[in-house]
User: What shape does this take?
Amino acid sequence: MIDGIIIRGVGGNYCVDTGEKLIECRARGLFRIKNIKPLVGDRVKIRITEEDENNGYIEEIEERFNEIKRPPIANAEQLLIFFAVTNPEPSFLLLDKLLIAAEINNLKPVICFNKCDLADDEKKTELEQIFINTGYKVIFTSKKDEKSIEKLKEILKDKLSVFSGPSGVGKSSIMNAVQPDFHLKTGEISDKLKRGRHTTRHAEIYKLSFGGYVVDTPGFSSFELSGIGEYELKEYYPEIKKFDEGCRFADCLHNKEPNCVIKDSVSEGKISETRFSNYRRLLEEIQKAKKIY
Assistant: This one.
C-alpha cells in the first residue's frame, strides 16, 4: 500500500497526494459500515487499482490528532489568523474568538496583520502591545514585502496550516505571493460595505513547493462560543491565566469582583485594555446565553 494525504474530497471521491503524484480514490465500503468519513487532511494508505494507475481505494485512515468540525479538516497543525492593519479595520473581538477556536481545536495560532505596507512602526507596535503576555506569535505581512513573505514561508514549511479571517483582508493575495502558481481568485473590497466578497467556497488543501500544505477557508470566521462556560473562558486568555492566581477569590470572573488582580494588571499595562474589554464582552455573551437556556 502507498501512504498519502487527502487534499480534496467531493461527493465520495478523494484526491490523495502520495508525494509523487495525485491519485483519485474511493473509500472502501468498510468505512461506511463503521460510520467513518475520510476528511481533507487525513493521512491514509491507499491501494492502486489494477485497471488504472491513477485510481485507487482508501484502505486505511491513520489516527487523527485533531479534527475540525467546520470546515471538516483533519490533522491541521496551526491556524494563521489574518486581519488587515487597515481597510478594513481589524475586529479584535472576532480575532479573540478565532484565537479561542484555535485553542479548542488544538491548533497553534499565528496572528498575521496583512497589508503592513499601509502601517508605520508606531501602528505596528500598538498592534503588538494588544497581545502582550499572551505568548502568541504576531507577524506583519504584505504581498509587496518580500521579507515578510519569506518569514511566512518559514512558518508554513512542512506543516498543515489553515488560513482564517474575514474576507477582504488579503488571504488569497498572500497565498498567491507565497506560491504564485496557486492563481487563487482575489476579491475586491466593496466600497459600499467595506467588506471583501467571499472568494473561497470550500476547504481544499494546497501543496507548497517548499514543503507543507495550506487550507484557505472562510469557515472559521463564523465561530461562536457555544460550549464554553463562564468560568472556563479565562482559560482561553493566557495573560489572564498568568496573573489570576493573586485574586482574592478563587472563582473570580475578573468582572465586577473587588480586589481583582487582573484589573490591576490592566492598569499596570501587563494586560491590554482591548483584550480585557473583549474578555468581558464574551463573558457577557456566555452569561446571557446561559440565562436563555
